[in-house]
Design a protein that fits this description.
Blueprint (H helix, E strand, L loop, with lengths): L1 H7 L4 H13 L5 H15 L1 H15 L9 H10 L7 H4 L4 H8 L5 H9 L4 E2 L2 E2 L22
Helix pairs in contact: 1-3, 3-4, 4-5, 7-8
Length: 149
């Protein structure tokens, strides 16, 4: 990792050593890999793109509140994750069980119901409490997005 940082970034040797020390203390956080990815992506795509991608990854993996996400971050997610596009009227009245099947997260309505009973599905980061739940206007983040997990 140190070699990659030296070749592909303009970081000083002191910064690289500090990153490698941090990496040795807590390899699970992968600070050196993250810094390399941010540095190269910034040069290729620009700082705004990096901010959006980092915010999107925090939404998916870091527990950040989806309702607080900016529209551009949700747009980044929609380009990177499987998406099912629906007319707004349909999305505002679709049973969650049907949404899970249409998205491919459940293989059948029965599978969706069992997953919901086991607290295995989320709508916008919140567990689905009942199989009878229907998506509504309040579930559309920025009027356009619903994240099913």
């Amino acid at each position: 990792m140190e070699r990659l940082l030296r070749f592909f970034t303009f970081l000083s040797m002191d910064e690289i050593r500090a990153l490698m020390d941090e990496q040795a203390r807590d390899p699970g956080k992968r600070p050196a890999q993250r810094r390399l990815a941010e540095d190269v992506t910034t040069r290729v795509h620009g700082a705004d793109a990096v901010r959006s991608v980092v915010a999107a990854s925090r939404l998916l993996f870091g527990g950040t509140d989806l309702r607080a996400a900016a529209p551009d971050v949700l747009q980044v997610l929609s380009q990177e994750l499987p998406v099912v596009r629906l007319p707004r009227g349909e999305a505002e009245s679709l049973p969650v069980v049907d949404a899970l099947v249409r998205s491919g997260l459940a293989s059948s309505k029965g599978d969706a119901r069992r997953g919901i009973q086991g607290k295995g599905f989320l709508v916008n980061g919140e567990p689905v409490a009942a199989a009878e739940r229907t998506l509504g206007a309040a579930d559309l983040l920025h009027g356009a997005y619903v994240l099913l997990q």
